[in-house]
Amino acid sequence: MTHVVVVGAGVGGLGAAVRLVGAGYRVTVLEAATTIGGKLNIEHADGHTFDTGPSLMTMPFTLADTLAAVDIRLEDVLELLPVEPICRYRWHDGAQLETWTDDDRTAAELERFEHGAGQEWHALLAQGRRTWEMSLPLFLSEPVGSFVDIARRSGRPIDPRDIQAHVTLSQIARRRFRDPRLQQVIERFATYAGADPARAPGTLSVIPYTETAFGAWHPQGGMHRIAEVLRDAVESRGGTVRTGARVTRIIVRDGAAAGVELADGERIDADAVVSNVDAARLYGELLDAPREARQVAEAPQSVSGFVLMLAVRGRTPELAHHNIWFPRDYRAEFADVFDDPQPPHDPAIYLCNPAATDASCAPDGDESWFVLVNAPRHGPVDWERAGERYQEQLLDRLDALGLQARERAKTIIRRTPADLERLTGAPGGAIYGTASMGPRSAFLRPRNESPAARRLYLATGSAHPGGGVPLVLLSGKIAAQLVLRDCG
Ligand SMILES: Cc1cc2nc3c(=O)[nH]c(=O)nc-3n(C[C@H](O)[C@H](O)[C@H](O)COP(=O)(O)OP(=O)(O)OC[C@H]3O[C@@H](n4cnc5c(N)ncnc54)[C@H](O)[C@@H]3O)c2cc1C
């Protein structure tokens, strides 16, 4: 029986493993950490639970499609709770705006800010739909190619306006809206790909369409449940998931991946290896692949994040599930993150309050807050030193917003970019590997089929088609399809 080793039990590794056991392969998943999930992890304190990474689930059909490979129906294993509004935005001047899956309702919200903005919102979603309908089958579900490959697959010439890669996200925001606050709402979608909106391709303007069309969801019990149902699906078909198993080397024989070596010296033979490890580490540490390592290292790296998790006494009716407070100067925040790396002085604050949807995350009447701000990677900033001070700065901001964070918090857990690097192996804590910046960036991500060795495949947010749970599941799908193609 063909044996496939998957290195890493993040969403990408587990997603690929589900598809591979479904195809009848013997599958062994090896995870370095003591828990599964990678960035999609969980933390407990004082009876509270916290998702440590993703907090917004979009495009649930990618998860349903993965589980279908082993005949499991998503609705039988996970209850998805709709999150409405999708997000509540606030500004220094007291203004507040909510986005909803009902596009008319969101359009009416935008119209309050600027005459004609509602119509522009509808036009943005219509454009997003065209981009989506082209990119899902031709780009997001296939091994990365070039613009020419996409045209070949589509069977007709591609109109660049459908892809919107020739303009930046900031340009799209400015062309559609005059009000700087509405521009910020659009620009923020660049951070879903870890990028600077002034350099991110306008293609990312597809995101509001996907949120509106496919909804914003919260799995009952927390986002980490996604990793658990994937692990259970692998095991339901006889696959093995081992934690505490750090791979130190991919064994290559006659130019093809033939197994792995673990930190304790154990060797495991395989007919193919799927790597869920960040591409920079795969090529820099697990393989002798200097050319690929250099290519990844030279690409711009994505944003990291500075996280506080607060076990909070009492409820906060003014909080939605997803909340954003924008800074006065959004441009300055991206300059602090990308141009002159330093802890951002006045960052946009994201606060996720899952108790608004799912009371199981906290003791009765209390809340579990997940607070995230964009942060430069560990390295350019020494987050081991800067973390404590920045925590105080952020708590000052939360208190200034009237949230009484210090007074109400029973426990505060801090996760800096340095912690993210240590816990998940992401270099510098970069959440999305290389960043989507520049019109061709989507084509330059590491490939799912490794050029460094045959029968070695990448299923990770640091490779094609990109980061975020749904795209990582698609990465796992593409990698599994390549294994099937090559191993029969
Ligand atoms: C703070 C934060 C907020 C986010 N918010 C969202 C959100 O709201 N929505 C969304 O969709 N996405 C979000 N994301 C992004 C999302 O979490 C990631 O894109 C996704 O989880 C990455 O999955 P992955 O499988 O590619 O990698 P990872 O989750 O990094 O998994 C890789 C795994 O490989 C293991 N590994 C590494 N090296 C080895 C080795 N040598 N041997 C064995 N195992 C190894 C690691 O321990 C890890 O478990 C967020 C991420 C963070 C950190």
**Quick one: CATH superfamily of the largest domain?**
FAD/NAD(P)-binding domain
Profile the largest sheet.
Answer: 7 strands, mixed
The secondary structure category is alpha/beta
Give the distance, in angstroms, between the N- and C-terminal Cα atoms: 11 Å
Regions with little confidence, pLDDT below 50 for 5+ residues? none
Given this structure, which CATH class of the largest domain is correct? Alpha Beta
Bound molecules: flavin-adenine dinucleotide
The helix content, as a percent range, equals 25-40%
Strand content: 15-25%
Description of the molecule:
The protein is α/β, with parallel strands linked by helices. It has three domains: 3-41 and 57-78 and 221-299 and 444-487, 3-Layer(bba) Sandwich (FAD/NAD(P)-binding domain), CATH 3.50.50; 120-213, no CATH class; 301-427. It is 38% helix and 19% strand. It is built from 18 helices and 20 strands. It has helices at 11-22, 61-68, 74-77, 103-111, 117-140, 147-154, 160-163, 169-176, 180-187, 206-214, 224-236, 279-286, 290-298, 330-339, 383-400, 405-408, 417-424, 469-487; strands spanning 3-7, 26-30, 42-45, 48-51, 57-58, 80-82, 87-90, 96-99, 216-219, 240-242, 247-253, 256-262, 267-269, 272-275, 304-312, 322-325, 349-352, 367-375, 409-415, 456-458. The strands form five sheets. Strands 8-7-16-17-18-15-19 form a seven-stranded mixed β-sheet. Strands 10-2-1-14-20 form a five-stranded parallel β-sheet. A hairpin with a 4-residue loop joins strand 12 (256-262) and strand 13. Helix 1 packs parallel to helix 11 and helix 5 (117-140) crosses helix 10 (206-214). The longest helix has 24 residues, at 117-140. The protein starts with a strand and ends with a helix. Flavin-adenine dinucleotide (FAD) binds at residues 7-13, 30-33, 38-40, 53-56, 246-247, 276-277, 305, 307, 372, 420, 424-426, 431, 460-461, 467-469, 472.
